[in-house]
Amino acid sequence: MPEVQSFSESFPQGFVEGWRFVMGLNAEPPRIPDAELIEGKTPYQSGLAKGVELGISAKQHSGEAGHRVHH
To answer: How many whole angstroms separate alpha carbon 51 and alpha carbon 46?
Structure first.
């Protein structure tokens, strides 16, 4: 059995991976939101879903989906 990660570790890890999945591997993730568990999902999966959700909305707000934003 794989070692179960603590909630406080696995949610942020999932969040960052979800964010980068949408925004690109080098994208700097935003401040990690408070962990929200999605019913029936692990903390990691919940974080992943949240990261993807925020990444998509951030892309929409930037108005230029598909373009890499350079700071």
So the answer is: 9
Please report which residue ranges of the chain form alpha helices under DSSP H. Answer: 7-23, 43-62
Report residue 4 as tokens. Answer: 């179960």
Q: What is the pLDDT of residues 10-53, one digit of tens each?
A: 999 999 999 999 999 999 998 998 888 899 999 999 999 999 99
Q: Cα–Cα distance between 9 and 63 in angstroms, integer?
A: 32
Asked if 44 and 5 count as a contact pair (C-beta separation under 8 A), the reply is yes
Q: CB of 30 within 8 A of CB of 13?
A: no
